[in-house]
Amino acid sequence: MGELKFKADCECSLKDFLINKEGVSKRFLSKLKRTKNGITRNGLLIRTVDMVYKGDVIVLKTEDESFLEPNPDLDVRIAFENESLVVFDKPVGMPVHPSIKHQGDTLGNFFAAKYPKLTFRPVNRLDRDTSGLCLAAKNPYAAVTLQNSVKKVYYAVAEGKTEDYGTIDLPIAREKESIIKRTVRSDGQQAVTHFRAIDRNEKYTLLEINLETGRTHQIRVHFSFIGHPLAGDDMYGGDCSIIENQALHCGSLSFYDPLSGELINVSSPIRDDMKKLLIKGE
Questions:
Q1: φ, ψ for residue 21 (rounded to 5)?
Q2: What is the pLDDT of residues 191-206, one digit of tens each?
Q3: CB-side exposure of 90: number of CA atoms within 13 Å?
Q4: d(CA 262, CA 123)
Q5: pTM of the model
Q6: Residues in the chain, pLDDT under 70
Q7: Active-site residues: which are they?
């Protein structure tokens, strides 16, 4: 089992705190009730109707992450598949893994429905609002063989006119007081992003991007820092008035098949909402 910790900052019922303040879904909360020692307050069991007070530490015990609840109602395009692996073309807005706010609507839940006897082993992961190719191994051997050997090419639409090509080599660290946001900071981990401009208009530049490292939010953080945030990326300063989600897409994967050794190339066209940003005069 894993666990999630929250520190109460108000006086209210546990149910109100978890659902309204922390975004825990009612479905997940119901599952926790059926889990042994699923919810505790300051180390003691607590019911959802009980009160919590400022400073209380709430711990949620999560199930084994190898189990994912199947959701046959989800629909994700399969870009490539063989006996060892599958490459999904993940839509924007779909997380890869379940989280507190996303129970049942993830790529993992789709995988569990399509392959009920297999464990979900994603080789590359994408942010919820990043679209494109996501590779999952169907067995442990393929997962180990493919790890750190997949070449990925991203496409992004950045605000303004960037250089024609370049490399951004700036360390990235977790933003203080945040569990999600990242920032460029001298004490961070090395992060290297290579890019070239392949199209542009007066407002935007379409970039082809290759990552030398794979830090969380690396592309988004780097381009925001140099003054060219991704269109639609409100977390890092992007304008959402024309496009609602970050203009970032994993458009190409290249890897060697674990069994045959054959080089496999898979591609996915960028989203229509990204293409519209590049219309001349827009």
A1: -95, -40
A2: 999 999 999 999 999 9
A3: 33
A4: 18
A5: 0.76
A6: 1-3, 62-67, 100, 280-282
A7: 127
